Amino acid sequence: MPVLEAEQLSIRFGGLQALLDVSLKVEEFEIVGLIGPNGAGKTTCFNCVTGFYRPQAGRVLFKDKDVSGLGPHDRSALGMGRTFQQVGLVKSTTVLDNLLTAQHSSINYGAVAGMLGSPASLRDERVLRERADAILEILGLDHLRDLPVQGLSYGTLKRVEIATALATDPDVLLLDEPSSGMGPEEAHRLGDELLELRNLFDLSILMIEHHVPLVVRVCDYVYVLNFGRLLTEGLPGDVQRHPEVVAAYLGEEAPEAEREAEKMEEKLEPA
Amino acid sequence: MATTAERAAEDDATTALPYADDGKRRFRPTPGGWAGRAAFVLALALIVVWYVTANKPFRADELSAGVILAIGALSLNVLVGYTGQISLGHQAFIGIGAFSAAYVFSHNHQGFYAGLAASAVVGIVQAVLLGLIALRVRGLYFALVTLAWGFMAENAIFRITSFTGGGAGTPFPRPSAFRTDKTYLVLCGIVLAVVLLIDWRLVATKAGRALQALRESPNVASSYGVNVRGYTLFAFGVSGFYAGVAGALFAARRLTAGASDYTFIDIALPLLILTVVGGLRRRGGIVVFALLYVLGREYLPDWGQSISFLKDNAIYVVPALSGVLAILTLIFQPEGLGTITAPIGRWLKGERFELDLSGGSGAEGVDARP
Questions:
Q1: pTM beyond 0.90, yes or no
Q2: Domains and CATH numbers, chain B
Q3: Prediction ipTM score
Q4: Residue B360, by phi and psi: left (phi above 0), alpha (psi -120 to 50) or beta?
Q5: If you compute the radius of gyration of chain A from its CA atoms, what whole number of angstroms results?
Q6: Which of B19, B212, B222 is facing A76, going by the closest CB pair?
Q7: Among A143, B20, B58, B105, which is most exposed with the fewest C-beta within 10 angstroms?
């Protein structure tokens, strides 16, 4: 039974049909890849699934519940953890503070009780710290604990962001280009890490990724988006050889991609 | 989570990347260091005691005005500092608190404490209503809304005779245990201490972190599970609460709430300057500067009288000086007096004394630099 399911999502921004009838599923404990050329609607799809955008049609099911009407914070509280393409961290503060803030939904005391210094809030704050430390240690980031986020390198920020997403205690992790800003070796290591994290945290993962070797290695299933539509889906190896995928990525003249081919040429890999 | 941590420990060898331990140890002061810190606190306390008890022209009344201003500035700090929304109408926040307290006293024949409670509740309600607007407009537009709200309160609401008593005002007495100026200063000090405690815990817990996140990026905040609308309103409620309490104290200090006391010039502008020069999100800086401000207001005009070229214009020294200070702060030290008080605070808690005069990244909410 899928833990996360998007049914026929459609969204239009002015004259641009950003998504049309996009459906996808993430089964429990699965790592699913979402690939496609730049501008294909991958991040828009993420934003619809996580509640940042309200699609004009379609619905999102999460753990057998229709969450289409819920805001992003409610979906986060239910167990959707996400990262952003442009690093989504509170930059004016430390790595540790980000991990504390990210545990917002699992805090038992109320905001007012915290303000009044209730004993439960003092106790809980210690637990939050321990949990944050544990996550940082797993990711090998404990040496960054008290450093300000500002000033960390882009590749490191992407990993810190995964740590904060884990701190929201997710069942499904949605990663937007986790390997961007990393070299091939780092990306390879990230692959190992994702497989490891899935086991440690009992996660399902949906990830947008451009780095094809990483997708082929870690993903159990892949969806390909192009011009807001699902081009194809399947096992990573099959999708990689699918003629239309090749056309969409390389701009070859496949019958349906003929007109778009010209525009796609420069969109192979993100800068 | 414990099991996760255990498993993590087992898997450490494979998952942890080989980063070198930079060997940074936590700094602990020596016994002598602690003694120095204790001596510093003691010296501060002695100065205060000496100032209050010394047999010279000391006006406890002025100092309690400073304490009340500090509470008002902490209220503004919640909006400007924590949520990043600029309020130019804080005379409405303070005044509505004051008149609510006086109204409860004169119409329902309740005492000071009932008035204080009423001012807190009404303060929260009016701030949350304004917060509902803040959810729709941000930045400059919201600042204009608060400006309008302030002038509306000042020139219309505060002149409704049945509510405020009009020009004569409405009486609001001090509680029987704190009638004299010196004891009333003690009461104001206690309230300020409570507000500071609340504010400290606010920042140190859930709500403070949520506000910090949503001030910087509402999207990141909601991905962390923070209800952005809810916490924006919450912050307005807290700000209204502080302001309401400050209003009641203000009225009782004057023994009456009068319409002409709660103006932009007398309340909102000084509070803005206190918050900016004291330092956004710098409780210590704000309180210290509020006290310095009233002491300056008390002594500088006298001092100005003694200087020949200032003689006739001595009353303008304080407004002129605070304006200049605010401008200099915005340009050179966005963290205001907090640049100095925050390191002292950290030092007292047992850390190293590290003064950073580089200007920092402090006031992103109202950073005036390009």
A1: no
A2: 64-348 (1.10.3470)
A3: 0.88
A4: left
A5: 19
A6: B222
A7: B20
